[in-house]
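Standup notes
- DV: blocked on the single-chain target, sequence here:
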Amino acid sequence: MTRPADNPWLSRFAAFTALATLGLIAMGGLVTSKGAGMAVPDWPTSYGYNMFFLPISMWKGGIFYEHSHRLVASGIGLLTALLSGWIWARETTGWQRKAGLAGIALTLGLIGIRTQAVFVAVACVALGFVVYGLVRLARKSQPLRWCAVIVFGLVLVQGVLGGLRVTLFKSELGIVHGMLAQLFLTLMVLVTLLTTAWWRNMFGLRLAVEPSDKARRMFLCVTVLIFVQLGLAATMRHQHAGLAVPDFPLAYGRLWPRSDPAFLSEVNARRMDVRDFNPITAAHIHLHMAHRIVAALILAGVFGCVWTLRRQLGAGHLFTRLAWGWFALVCGQGLLGAATVWTNKAADVATLHVVLGATCLAFGGVLTVCLHRLTVHRINAHVLT
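- DV (later): unblocked, structure below
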């Protein structure tokens, strides 16, 4: 098949979808910060109405935040479907093109049937396509095509997880829902990168000095650590452990806080924050401190990545400068984490903390993929010579 010509409008549309996804993550963080996740107790309907026809007169208080989140999420789903269809039509021909586009159209039609059983069935099928797409990616087969399949499947699974979190009242589903949102954003940014001419031209790069396998592994490990950190953060938010330790940089005035029953009884007796109605437990304190420790490890790890690239590629190299940008984002994220504690978990600060965390993951993921591509190019060039 002849390689299709680069289309800047496809890249722009993908970038717009990625930015919209980041906005949706911000809305999700705000919903959690406002304690509005259960403000609309049914799904896929909203107080018995078709979600898209809920009377505006009911959009008050927590309902406004949660219902707006649902509507924007539906918009992201539609944008992802359009983007995936565009990529599939561009990257395939013949029966594959027709079958793929028909599948997307059928999925959108089934979603119009507003019953939970249909949604769950669609998500199960979508999960199968996600797994198949990952297998094809592992074989290094048409990455853009299969990334499009993966993001379309993931957005369906993500939507259903969000709904089931409401109907099943399971905070564990909320944690998975939050983590999958971060992963989806990273993949969406990667799809945007894959649609650019710059990505294709990376095979033509001739570098005087190239990043080593060690650098690539370092970036991968730190990016995975950031994802683990986001999992800890999601668990903290859904267990209301964000203020389990209410001071920073110390913890209850110590390097490591007490967590014995007598101390916990004293802490819970003098709490003034009515938002976190569950008593603080030793597990909450340990979770909070683990989040701080991993944050320090990430900061050190990202600096190590920067220093490794600086030694290997030089201070002025593009990837070294990008790595410094990553380090700056992580430093800003650390400051926002501290500010979240100092401001008594103000909703706007906590939401910015969520958004920047997602950005750090996406930035690290894309840098890791770029370094991997350069490494593969170097190995292939060595084999050919």
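- Follow-up: Residues 379-385 have pLDDT under 50 and may be disordered.
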